[in-house]
Each structure stands twice: as structure tokens, then as C-alpha cells.
Amino acid sequence: MLKAKISLCLNYFIIALLLNSVAVFVIQMANQFHASQGTISAFAPFKDFSVLVASFILASLIPKMGVKKTNMLGMACILIACIVMGTYPSIINSFVFFILLGISFSLIKVATYASVIHITKGRKEHTSFVSLLEGFFMLGILSMSWLFGVFEDFGKWTYVFWVLAILTIFATLLYMTVHIDEKHIDKELEQEEGEKAKRGVFKTLFSSWVVWFFIILSISDVFIETGLSIWLPTFNNHFLHINTAIAIELLSLFSASLALGRLFFAAILKYVKSVVVLVVCMLLALTVFVTSMFVIKSMPAIHVTLANWTQLPPIAFWLPLVGFFIAPIYPTFCSLLLTCFPSKKFQSPIASIIVIFSAIGGIAGAALLGYLFRILGPAKGIAIPAIPLFIMLLLTIPYFWVIKRKHAGSK
């Protein structure tokens, strides 16, 4: 089982690294492909849009294929995407690249999570391994900035796709040697899949205020996370005039802030009420945005390209710290929703709601923020995520109130 776990973690690492390289493409489409801001704004949400469409289309096909074939098909999509982009880098192929990655992510995520039950024993080991998987996913995101940055330093950023193609081939060959017994599927899981198809379950969910509050909150939060992860390097490059390689590498500070924040607040939430943690974190995140805007407004114009870490202005390090404070928001909202409907028949439909509306939030964050970057410029555009953050702050306490009423009504 150890080989199976290593293989799944490696697959998850690769798809995370590539799927979150949108910010790199946004910069390269402007600098190397000379694409217009309109084209770039249309490109930015392609990752989440392709994931959303693929999730709808493939939902009924994946159970018929089985987890192993599904995972291997996902890895094949990654390999094709890397070869296409490595051989013929262009604007059109950039779109093709993320369409293939969207399909791949939908396949790999479903297959990976469905595989966990086959390679773990007991609830504790299952939970532990899922946490490990998500850790590798975050590691992939962190590695992306530095890997692309290193190749950009050599002026050969597209060579990274050949490195990742080789890694994908290795991961696929390793996965082919893994044995996953799919013959004995747990009857309870089959029943849950059957329940998921019933309209009554979704009707019950969507008749609850808890779900509608969650939809607004999750879209707002993912808007912020996706928007910053895509457009922060462009702000660094176009407004602060930081060279492309360092602008890309600086994105890892935002990713690291998210990772550290989720680990830190996971421990804090054991002892402090979640509503207190979320409200304080949102206020601190807004403080980072507000102070950043004052600094940006008072900054003198930069007329030279900053090519050294020692030349960077403090704002380049300060703004990514917002990730630390927004880190616990999304996981807490998801957990609250899942525990609000503890019956097993609701868990899969709720997971579907989380995935679908998170993708919608990602699309909105990438597209709308890209449009506002073009209209307002990077200095004002980077402040836009503070608006959905303020909306979340206003809705958080009412969200906890409707949850409390839901629990009281179910007793």
C-alpha cells in the first residue's frame, strides 16, 4: 500500500503544480506572446471554467471507468498538455493546455479520493492520508513559482514542460504497477451514489438558508484566493516593475502564507470558537489591504526594472501576507456546511455543491479581476478583493446564526 500512496501523492503534486501556473501564463502571454489585455482577461478563468465543465460532463462516466483507468487517463491528459506547450508555445495552445488540465484535474481528483478507501484501513488512516494528499497539493503549488522562476532566469521557461512531461511519465509508470482492488465496492457507498441522484436531496439542501449563505461566502472567498494567485505577479511585474522571474517567485509567498495559515489555525480552532477566529482573521486581512493601498498611493514612480531581491519595495512582501489571514476561512465554511447535514446521504451532494460553486468563484475571480486590472490598472485592481472580503465579514455572523438555528431545529 505504501507504493500506492506514494503514487497518488506524486500524481496530486504534478497536477497541483501545473494547474496553478495560470499566473505564469498571464505574464508570458503579455511579455512573450504580446497578447492584448482582453485576451489575457479571457484566458485567466479558463482553469476553473474547464474544471467546472469537465466535472459536469465526466460525473457519470468516471464510475463506469473505474478509479485506475480514470487516474491514468488524467495523467495522459497532463502528458499531452506538456508536450503541446513544450513543442508549440502560443496563445492558442495556452488555452488548449488549460482545457486539458481542467479535464485532468477532474479525473485525478475524483479517482484519487475514490482510491483512498481501497488503500487505507479505518477512518483515522483515511483522514490522515487525505490530509497528506492535500499537503502534497500545496507543496506542488509552492514548487510551481520557483520551478518556473528558475527556468525563466535562463530565458527558457517552456523547457519546464519537458521536465514535467518526464516526471509525468515516471509517475504514470509507477501508478501502473499499483494494484487497487475495485471488485468489492462498499454497498453503503453505492447507496450514497444512488441517493445523490435523487432530486429530493438537493431540494432539501437548496431550501436551506445555510446552503445559500455558504454559496455566497464560498464564491467570495475563492474569488479572493484565485484572483490574487493569478494577478499578484502581474501587479508585481507591471506596477512595481519587478522582473518576470522574481515576480513569479514572489507568488510563492502568497502560497506559503496560505499553507502556514491553514496549519496554524487548524490548531487554534481546537481551542477558540470558529466565529471569533474568522472575524478576527477577516479584520486583519482587511487591514493588510487598507495599509497596502495607502503605501501604493504614496509610492514614487518606478522607472527601472527591479532585478534583485534587495531592490524590492516592502509592499512586495507585505501584500502576500493576506494569504495567512484568509487561510482558515474556506476550510471552516466547508466544514460547517458538512457538519450541518450529518446524514451520509447529504455528504456527496454537499461535496458537489462545494466543488461547483468554488469553481464558479474561481472563474469570477480570474475573469472579473482581470477585467478590472485592464480598466482600472494594477494599482487599483489589486485592491478589488477587499470588497468580497468585506461582504464575507458582514455575512459571517448571520451564517453562524442560521447554522445555530439549523442545529437547534434538528434536535
Distance between the termini: 41 Å
Shape: globular
User: Helix and strand string, N-terminal first?
Assistant: HHHHHHHHHHHHHHHHHHHHH
How many strand elements?
0
Stretches where pLDDT is under 50 for at least 5 consecutive residues are 184-189
Tell me what you see in this structure.
This protein is mainly alpha-helical and 411 residues long. It folds into two domains: 1-185, MFS general substrate transporter like domains (Growth Hormone, Chain: A, Up-down Bundle); 192-411, MFS general substrate transporter like domains (Growth Hormone, Chain: A), CATH 1.20.1250. Helix content is 81%, strand content 0%. It is built from 21 helices and no strands. It has helices at 2-19, 22-31, 37-43, 46-58, 62-65, 67-87, 91-119, 122-153, 160-176, 187-196, 199-206, 209-238, 244-249, 251-268, 274-298, 315-318, 322-326, 329-340, 344-376, 378-381, 386-410. The longest helix has 33 residues, at 344-376. The radius of gyration is 21 Å and the shape is globular. The model is unreliable at 184-189 (pLDDT under 50).
